[in-house]
Amino acid sequence: MFIQTQQALGPYQKADPLTKVEELQIKFLRLIHRIGLTPENLVVSQVLYRLQLASLIRAGESDVKRPVLKVNTARGIATELESTGSPNLDLSLRILVLGKTGVGKSSTINSIFEQPMVATNAFDPSTDRIHEVVGTIKGIQVTVIDTPGLSASYGNASHNRRLMLSIKRFIRKSPPDVVLYFERLDAINRGYSDQPLLKLINDVFGSSIWFNTILVMTHASSHPPEGSDGYSVAYDAFVHQCTTTVRNYIRQTVSNAQFETPVILVENHPMCRTNNKGEKVLPNGQVWLSQFLLLCAATKVLADANVLLKFQESFQLIPKNSRLPSLPHLLSSILRPRSLPNGKSFGDQDDVYELLDNDNDEDDYDQLPPIRILTRTQFKTLSKAQRNAYLDELDYRETLYLKKQWKEELRRQRERMLHQDDTYVRNDNYENSDSQEVSEVSDMAIPLSFESDNPAYRYRSLLGNDQWLVRPVLDPQGWDHDVAFDGINLESSLDIRKNFQASVVGQMRKDKEDFNIQSECTARYSDPRHHSLLAEVDIQTAAKDLVCTVHGDAKFCNFKCNTTGGGISVTKYGNMYFVGAKLEDSINIGRRAKLTLNAGQIRGCGQVASGGSIEATLRGKDYPIRDDKLTLATTILSYDKEMVLGGSIQTDFRAGRTVKMSVNANLNSRRLGQISIKTSTSEHVEIALIAIFSLVNALIQRKGTEASIDEKKESTSIDL
Ligand SMILES: Nc1nc2c(ncn2[C@@H]2O[C@H](COP(=O)(O)OP(=O)(O)O)[C@@H](O)[C@H]2O)c(=O)[nH]1
Ligand SMILES: [Mg+2]
């Protein structure tokens, strides 16, 4: 039977991970046989069940459908191999021990090898360096990495950190299969708290260390303490209470309430009770060495199977979303048009120059007949229709005048750029240079939804010169109001040399525990033929990690009305990397219409998100003096086997002479959407506002009833 199976498995051996998992299962069963346990043992059956389940899931997913090796068949093969004794059980275990000094790490190593391998000491730390102890237990090769004890006193955190870092270096090349964290059973009492030590382990090795960690309790034959009734607590209840205490600390450390660390009880005392086979037993009759080997082997086998079947990525100790940045979010950040802080979107300036070149109705304003400006009393004598006609005329003239001004300014600017080569003033001579050389720092753009609670928008420049704009950031819930603000916001943008601009935006905030940074550095080069290059580095803190993104964009004006571009970005989040790329194209149709298409993909940590959008913009006839426009966009996003389609409409227009409206609405195929209406006015228009409020109210109510039926979610924001 064995030979048959070998032949059957033979051809798959290299290629098929499922076959490797089946081999692992057979090896595990052979070891169980040697330890003297049966597959009916609770832990053994759990391990076999998990291996079966994992294989079935992967076999079901793969294209080559094939039956998974049944437990009974595997058991038969294992028994047969054990009875013939060949081939050798090719299984190895690599174990790292961690724990405070004197808890019995070295003694346990001697106990499991059943001979003195390392020195132990009751009073002084006797393990002074990290070293490997190699031997065989039940025919499998076991390597234990013995480490000097950690210090229990809180003042010694730096010693502990140094020690852990050197352990981390030691295991870098070949990581352990199992980590044993040691405690003394008799030392766990109500006052026990090793949380700082556990937290340090978590910080140095990362939370993934807990997947392979087993809690080892030495001195397991200790007498349970007396209960409140004067009698000793039952042994099992005592053990349960102690393990629960330590497990809870580990749960708090990894911030996961479900996490259950396996426990092994150990007794190293030479006088430990033995059974009739001479095996050391605990007060409850358990042979602790077999339990020890079983749990170590189970941990290794399950971890190996996860790696082989690529399951390890789907396990996250801390809920997935808080650890992984959202891929759709990263994708939309790569797809968004890049902008410099002066509000000009990357490439926009070129459009504007183009408009200037194409604009022939030069002297519109100068050709207008003169108009008589009325005094207030004269104005009052006019009829309503006359008043309107008069105001319209003024408005028209204002537009033309602004247009003329704008063109002149643009021409001057272009002139300057062309002559800058010779007269270019270096950075350090800025005092002497014409202050016009420095691009102006604009005010912070008003966010889409204006939150009056967000102080970044409430406080304006504290101190500023031509190059730097500095603003305080005040958090109403902040920790220290004596200093009046919790952070600082810095912005600067300057022309470094001809056609080369750079900008920095940064915000730093500090509260009692966290220090947050958010910064964006951008450099942009654009050549006279409207080709442009942009490089950007974003750094920000997210929880405890630093998220760093490097982004590069290039745009080529290949035809007169067509611009093609592409970009790549790399994001580092903790120790994960995400790489993204995008392609985009924008076509100007006439002077006022623009069509933009883009598509991009981002991947990392085995996940992929792809998406794209088509956007059509129609600008008002007075662009860019008045920025009336209508934008229609559709987007598509595919992530995690799901496809989401979205559509949005945005329009900015003037409703009458004094009121500007901005309406933004979007909805996606998940039935999530948003409507936002903003108005700004230079006159009191309470009546109009009341109308809008009632309109919005009516909308909310209607949508509210729809929502209950359709699970539709809408949010409405009104910004004044
Ligand atoms: N009674 C008892 N004593 C133990 C046990 N484990 C270790 N010891 C004793 O505790 C002392 C310190 O042990 P050692 O292995 O050197 O601790 P390490 O610093 O963690 O390596 C030694 O004197 C051991 O004999 C145990 O399970 N039961
Ligand atoms: Mg030791």
Please describe what this structure looks like.
This protein is of the alpha+beta class and 720 residues long. Among the domains are: 83 residues; 181 residues, Rossmann fold; 72 residues; 71 residues, no CATH class. It contains 15 helices and 22 strands. Strand 2 and strand 3 form a beta hairpin. The longest helix is centred in the middle third of the chain and has 40 residues. The N and C termini lie far apart (82 Å). The N terminus and C terminus are likely disordered. The protein binds guanosine-5'-diphosphate and magnesium ion. The site of magnesium ion has 4 residues, from helix 5.
**End-to-end gap:** 82 Å
Bound chemical compounds: guanosine-5'-diphosphate, magnesium ion
CATH topology of the domain at 92-272: Rossmann fold
Subunit arrangement of the protein: single chain
Strand content is: 25-35%
In DSSP terms (H or I, runs of 4 or more residues), the helix count works out at 15
Strand order of the largest sheet: 7-8-9-10-11-12-13-14-15-16-17-18-19-20-21-22
CATH architecture grouping of the domain at 92-272: 3-Layer(aba) Sandwich
Q: Quick one: overall form?
A: elongated
**Radius of gyration in whole Å, from Cα?**
36 Å
> Which structural class should the secondary elements be placed in?
alpha+beta
Mean pLDDT: 76
The CATH H-level superfamily of the domain at 92-272 is P-loop containing nucleotide triphosphate hydrolases
> Which CATH class of the domain at 92-272 applies here?
Alpha Beta
User: Could you give a short account of the major beta sheet?
Assistant: 16 strands, mixed
